[in-house]
Design brief:
It is an enzyme of class 3 (hydrolase). Hydrolyzes RNA 2',3'-cyclic phosphodiester to an RNA 2'-phosphomonoester. Its EC number is 3.1.4.58. This protein has one domain: Cyclic Phosphodiesterase, Chain: A, CATH 3.90.1140.10. The radius of gyration is 18 Å and the shape is globular. 31% of the residues are buried. It contains 4 helices and 12 strands; from the N terminus they run βββαββαββαβαββββ. Helix content is 26%, strand content 45%. The strands form 3 sheets. Strands 5-3-10-11-12 form a 5-stranded antiparallel β-sheet, covered by helices on one side. The protein has a 5-stranded antiparallel β-sheet with strand order 4-8-7-6-9. The longest helix has 18 residues.
């Protein structure tokens, strides 16, 4: 049973030495994108697509997937990243149309495209630098997107079906980044914020 301690007013789960969390760094894309994701998932289901779907409430834009790392290292990373991003300018980006990553001529992942702005690229670079300073691997290539589902089955003429789905453009404000824990459950992944690194306001440690 985990020990619970209170630090600076936040309730924090204290993990035994060597325990690891499956984590990633991402931007919270907000309620507008959440609604679009739920709408897309509903349409794809009715078209016959089957997948491990992302609920709108879990929608996000991943900056770097970290995998399983020690909680102590997550704390150090959060502090370092918060200091590095302090004063980074707030900005916005817009969502685009549906896209996909393909494998063997079938969609492997279906996603909502994102405007790749200079601010977004600079933010990704700052995250990479922070990870590298701790000896953590970071992806060199950055293809910003918001995952809708990881596909298990796609109907015939799937590409034409995807082309019929038109999306409302959503403008997403970005005021910071978050470190999430990803817990794999039988019904799918459950995401929860562990730390928030705000451009103005510093580091927030969330209850989890």
């Amino acid at each position: 049973m985990p020990v619970v301690v209170v630090i600076s007013g936040f309730l924090v789960r204290s993990l035994k030495g060597g325990s690891k969390l499956r984590t990633f760094i991402a931007i919270d894309t907000g309620k507008g994108v959440a609604s679009v994701v739920d709408m897309v998932v509903d349409k794809l289901k009715r078209m016959g697509f089957k997948a491990s779907w992302v609920p709108g409430s879990n929608a996000h834009l991943t900056l770097s997937f970290l995998g399983e790392i020690e909680f102590s290292k997550v704390e150090i990373l959060a502090s370092m990243l918060s200091k590095r991003l302090r004063g980074f300018p707030s900005f916005t980006f817009s969502t685009k149309q549906l896209g996909f990553f393909r494998h063997n001529n079938l969609p492997r992942v279906i996603w909502i495209g994102v405007e790749n702005t200079p601010f977004l690229n600079n933010l990704h670079r700052e995250v990479r630098v922070a990870l590298g300073s701790l000896g953590l691997a970071a992806e060199d290539k950055f293809h910003p997107h918001i995952t809708v589902g990881r596909m298990k089955y796609s109907p015939p003429y799937w590409k034409k079906l995807l082309a019929t789905i038109e999306l409302e453009e959503i403008v997403v404000p970005v005021n910071g980044v978050h470190i999430y824990e990803s817990e794999l459950l039988s019904e799918g992944a459950n995401y929860r914020k562990i730390f928030s690194c705000n451009f103005e306001g510093g580091l927030v440690k969330h209850e989890f």
